[in-house]
Amino acid sequence: MNAKLDSTVTTRPVTRQTFDEVLVPTYAPAAMVPVRASGLDLWDQNGKHYLDFTSGIAVTALGHCNPVIVEALTRQANTLWHLGNGYTNEPVLRLGLALTEATFADRAFFCNSGAEANEAALKLARKHAHAKFGAHKSRIISCFSSFHGRTLFTVSVGGQSKYTEGFEPLPPAIDHIEYNDIAAARAAIGDDVCAVIVEPIQGEGGVLPGDKAFLQELRDLCDKTGAVLIFDEVQSGMGRTGHLFAYQGYGITPDILTSAKALGNGYPVAAMLTTNELAASLGVGSHGTTYGGNPLAATVALAVVNVINQPAFLARVREASAKMVALLEGLAKDYPAILSTVRGSGLLLGVVVADAWKGRSKDIQKAAEAQGLMVLIAGTDVVRFAPALVVTDEQIAEAGRLLRAALDSLAA
Predict the structure, then answer these.
(1) Where does this chain mainly localize (predicted)?
(2) Could you read off the pLDDT of 280-312 as tens digits, one per residue?
């Protein structure tokens, strides 16, 4: 029988090797294959237990299989899945109200991923500038080491050449400045700039928080030149910093904000939030998406927002952050040959490796995994931690024990 028609295809054994045989090799996943998870606990095919301090790269902020989210998804799955964009639906209207009431924004556009949200934000900025000032106002300013998505437009805006090599020619009129460099910002942002896009905390670029003075200068320069300020909060948003969105902690308001990752706790959903004035530039038919804002995604996202956007919940994130920072700083003090600086915000934290370990953050990640702790890297010199926001003090302490064992194994 043709294997493609074999009914056992849904149940036959698969392994990590199957990835190498049938999937396009855009990733190099770990050797273990996760099969089940709950909260911050995860088990692989062999039944080995792991403590997950990655949250799927800051996605499962409420933990794996959170019962509140499971209930919301299940209820909607038995009600209404999808409609064409000739129709709206109740869940997406409620989600739009919840996000605009909780932020500076008046309007929301829903899509499926952070890249799509940033694509929409950049298109909106260009469309607005062309309509208000003319086609000459089209240049986009971003930062080196930023990450804004994998579409050709967003990967070009991201300031990492390793992600654009081989995809040329790239979209024009995109320039990059050093992150946290006020002088560079002043030199680059002129009257021909339509948009400045920035992560309040660079995630993939090394868990590097933006200086308040730098972000404020971007705000002032955009006000002066008529450019649109876009905050990419795909990774820093949805409670990750101890505020619903990082901009609220800085007290600096963008014109457009993008959200994804934790917004759906693992269900694909993203949002672009903006003002009435800017939203008017995207009229009927000017932009769209097939799945964006479908009832399933909107129901899940609304449940996530309702859980996270509570003062007590956000206060606990800040409390857990302080405990995590103290833990990591203690480890850096005890293992100075391997670890150095701790940086980040909330529960998006990074530890820079010591000089002798430059380029070897992956080795630390693998050593932690061997001990049963899942962590992330942010480039080759930073170990990144993004546990679920519901992490307990006991789980933080356990992560410390597992990390210590991993560092002992490396030191030996």
Answers:
(1) cytoplasm
(2) 999 999 999 999 999 999 999 999 999 999 999
